[in-house]
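Reopening: structure tokens for the NAP complex, inputs below.
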Amino acid sequence: MQDMKTALITGITGQDGAILAQFLLDKGYDVHGMQLYSATPDTQRIEILQKHERFHLHYGDLTDGGNLHRLVRDIRPDEVYNLGAQSHVKVSFAVPEATAQINALGTLRLLDAVRDTDARFYQASSSEMFGSARPPQNEQTPFAPCSPYASAKLYAYWLVRNYRDSYGLHASNGILFNHESPLRGEEFVTRKVSRCVAAIAEGQKERFALGNLDALRDWGHARDYVEGMWMMLQQDKPDDYVLATGQAYSVREFVTLAFSCAGIRIVWRGAGLDEKGYDAANGRVLVTIDPQFFRPNEVNALVGDATKAQQILGWQPKTTLRMLVEDMVAADRAALREGHVPEDEGFGFSAAA
Ligand code: NAP
Ligand code: F7E
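Re-run output (same inputs, fresh job):
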């Protein structure tokens, strides 16, 4: 095919990498994904894509500059999507240096590998960079990062702008607010909740524990957001865009909604560490608070204003929070019925995380 484009995606095994890969394959792209070496690889999200003739996997690592240069030289991508990251905010307090190596210097290495090519570059910047800045946040809001994760992402954000201004690189920052899906990592709050609610609804679990229920987040569906990433690279000029729904919900509201999707009405009683969520039908405790899930520093409220993306890209989120939560809870219930055994409380969350 004459006009077939080639894309290189770092972080292909993650939520966004897998969904973006599918999106680009559907558009006729040749998709190359960079996969980290692991003795026990988890390629579940891309299993179905591996059968596709236009899907190719390469070992690579954002901490290895030579490897990135060779990949870009050999693949000669038209578009590079830098989605690879240590993406967990709380974990970044435990491994700040590794987070900086991957998220900050990793982006520098990849930009340098792309610098002398015609490839267009997408950087997975994050609403976390706004940190303690007052919502709603948009492209003009001053950044105030509150974690090693956010600080590393901010370094990468500025490098993208530096490379764009200094070398004329078509490099754009997508400043994305939280986006979720049934493919979301199990350590993020939405997926932890959808899995636990599914397990409770299927009679396989009694209750689970969470951290800060008051945090406000702007949760969208990842499939809407990967389209926005692609739209940014189709523009004549590179730029930076916020993608968000503009709607804020607390973690508590998310949990309430998830239970309602499973036909359970939850009521909240108590305050602070003593707050609990009860099954309104029988008084059973469903949710407790465990300080192990608190963070050294919390981002209280992230709510995005995506007016610029709407006006210039024509981007609009298509999925409501209710649709997203229904999708996630239904997928986790179906997985349990197919025989996936739920893990212990915490679902992969160790005290260190
Ligand atoms: P994710 O599921 O955690 O995926 C991260 C990916 O990065 C995984 O494929 C992971 O590989 C890979 N990775 C980790 N260390 C790496 C390294 N040293 N070199 C290369 N790749 C490495 O994250 P996501 O939710 O899809 O998010 C995609 C990107 O968007 C991330 O950069 C994230 O920080 C950013 N972001 C996400 C959101 C959101 O709400 N999802 C919002 C804003 C920005 P393994 O699977 O082998 O660990
Ligand atoms: O936490 C609170 C927690 O870990 C959301 C990443 O994709 O989005 C994500 O970062 C909120 C926080 O996502 C638990 O304290 C309560 O306030 O799901 P999360 P995040 O930190 O917002 C941004 C945009 C990114 O860029 C990141 O890569 O939920 N919370 N109880 C909890 N969080 C977790 N994980 N687990 C709990 O038990």
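Confidence is low (pLDDT under 50) at residues 343-353. The two ends are 47 Å apart (CA to CA). Marking as resolved unless the reporter disagrees.
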